[in-house]
């Protein structure tokens, strides 16, 4: 746990250094596309940035470079072919650098997949003085009982979502307040360690420094949910190519995240098999003519499949739109049923607000919101990412929710456990700091 803490601290420090230099890139490594945005920070502190800890109140920024390329070597949100992914990342980063006309050394990356699991931790400590200090927050975060999350897993996010001072709960920032006992609730998200290490290794091979890693589902929620939804409770469903990411927010904090290993590519694959066409043709047909709700008109609307096999009869085939919808709808329903099961397991129905926001490239299928409201619950809307200063028009669609969320996260990160100094008594046994503290206390 100490090594993990140190690596996360090092990445946070690297991010700070990159922001002081004024330029940082964000990279969304997805199954269907890799998007890179280059941000320039203008140095003026944001006054409206809330939150606690050393990171609150960060600078405003504008996007000065953006590029996207087809993702290669990524399956289910995890890297499956290192060379292919490295080439795709290099292509996206170089194109974004060219547009920005500046070189970037540090990137913050996000990815889906890797089997995320959420844990709720609690801890409490008695205060040494009467006033809550930064050191007390470090102590209470370290006092949380970390569960045995298994070998081969790594902590991706560990965020305090609530503080309680004596009998007063729901505090955002307890520092400077008076009390006797400080308690906290922390949300911890673990992922498969190999997936994170592969991503870090791939970024290193591209001659870039990794200044942060985040979960795509979390980033999509940050950019697609409006402030009221984050406050009152809402779920964000990020329908990507290989995975559907789920994140639940309340009180402006993520309290649960998960992912379903199915996405838009599975729908394309079904069309490809059902109509006996190449994947590229199936993707085009899905994009132009796809849908999930058939009407009487769809029996009469014929779609030219096209093709270049040389077999005239085969290439001149036509199917009705109703047939296409008949292929797509069962798979979309299956994905939404899986999402419903995850939301039920998370206890989503107990939240005061049951708003669900669909985002990601897969959410653009016509009629999806109507189908989702039948399967997931009544309050469903399609979400687009927030408008960010300097973002090109081409990058404002739902497919860029994670990339835009990563920009907001880079500028105004939420506090994590490693933003606070680890208390001296949690250091390894032979630590010099521990000895120094003992001398201070006893002489």
TrEMBL record:
Q: Name one GO biological process term.
A: FtsZ-dependent cytokinesis
Identify one Gene Ontology CC term for this UniProt entry: cell division site
Keyword Mitochondrion in record? no
SUPFAM superfamilies in alphabetical order = Actin-like ATPase domain
What are the subcellular locations of this protein? Cell membrane
Q: Which residue ranges does the record assign to the SHS2 domain?
A: 24-224
Q: What is its main location?
A: membrane
Recite the UniProt keywords alphabetically.
Cell cycle, Cell division, Cell membrane, Membrane
Q: How is this protein positioned relative to the membrane? A: Peripheral membrane protein
Q: Which Pfam families does the record cross-reference, listed alphabetically?
A: FtsA, SHS2_FTSA
Q: How does it assemble?
A: Self-interacts. Interacts with FtsZ.
Q: Which PANTHER family match?
A: CELL DIVISION PROTEIN FTSA (PTHR32432:SF4), CELL DIVISION PROTEIN FTSA-RELATED (PTHR32432)
What function is annotated for this protein?
Answer: Cell division protein that is involved in the assembly of the Z ring. May serve as a membrane anchor for the Z ring.
HAMAP family (UniProt xref): FtsA
**Family per UniProt?**
Belongs to the FtsA/MreB family.
This protein is called what?
Answer: Cell division protein FtsA
Species whose genome carries this gene: Roseovarius nubinhibens (strain ATCC BAA-591 / DSM 15170 / ISM)
């Amino acid at each position: 746990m100490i090594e993990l803490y140190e690596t996360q601290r090092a990445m946070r420090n690297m991010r700070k250094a990159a922001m002081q230099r004024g330029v940082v890139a964000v990279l969304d490594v997805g199954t269907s596309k890799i998007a890179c945005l280059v941000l320039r920070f203008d140095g003026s502190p944001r006054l409206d940035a809330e939150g606690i800890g050393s990171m609150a109140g960060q600078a405003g920024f504008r996007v000065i470079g953006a590029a996207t390329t087809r993702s290669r070597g990524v399956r289910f949100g995890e890297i499956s072919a290192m060379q292919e992914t490295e080439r795709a990342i290099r292509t996206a980063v170089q194109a974004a650098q060219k547009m920005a006309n500046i070189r970037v050394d540090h990137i913050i990356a996000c990815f889906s997949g890797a089997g995320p699991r959420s844990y709720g931790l609690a801890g409490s400590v008695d205060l040494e003085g009467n006033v809550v200090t930064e050191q007390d927050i470090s102590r209470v975060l370290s006092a949380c009982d970390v569960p045995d999350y298994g070998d081969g897993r790594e902590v991706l996010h560990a965020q305090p979502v609530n503080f309680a001072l004596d009998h007063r709960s729901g505090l955002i920032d307890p520092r400077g307040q008076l009390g006797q006992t400080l308690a906290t609730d922390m949300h911890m998200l673990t992922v498969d360690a190999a997936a994170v290490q592969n991503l870090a290794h791939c970024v290193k091979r591209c001659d870039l420094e990794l200044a942060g890693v985040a979960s795509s589902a979390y980033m999509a929620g940050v950019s697609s949910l409006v402030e009221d939804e984050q406050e009152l409770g809402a779920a964000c469903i990020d329908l990507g190519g290989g995975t559907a990411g789920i994140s639940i927010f309340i009180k402006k904090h993520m309290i649960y995240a998960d992912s379903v290993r199915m996405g838009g590519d599975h729908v394309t694959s079904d069309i490809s098999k059902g109509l006996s066409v190449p994947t590229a043709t199936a993707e085009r047909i899905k994009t132009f003519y796809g849908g999930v709700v058939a009407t009487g008109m769809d029996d009469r609307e014929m779609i030219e499949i096209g093709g270049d096999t040389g077999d005239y009869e085969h290439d001149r085939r036509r199917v009705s739109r109703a047939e296409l919808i008949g292929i797509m709808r069962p798979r979309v329903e299956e994905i939404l049923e899986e999402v419903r099961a995850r939301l039920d397991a998370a206890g989503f129905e107990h939240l005061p607000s049951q708003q669900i926001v669909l985002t990601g490239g897969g959410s653009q299928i016509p009629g999806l919101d109507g189908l989702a409201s039948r399967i997931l619950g009544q309050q469903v809307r399609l979400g687009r990412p927030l408008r960010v200063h300097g973002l090109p028009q081409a990058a404002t669609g739902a497919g860029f929710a994670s990339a835009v969320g990563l920009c907001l996260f880079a500028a105004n990160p939420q506090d994590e456990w490693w933003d606070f100094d680890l208390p001296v008594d949690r250091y390894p046994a032979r630590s010099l700091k521990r000895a120094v503290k003992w001398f201070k206390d006893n002489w």
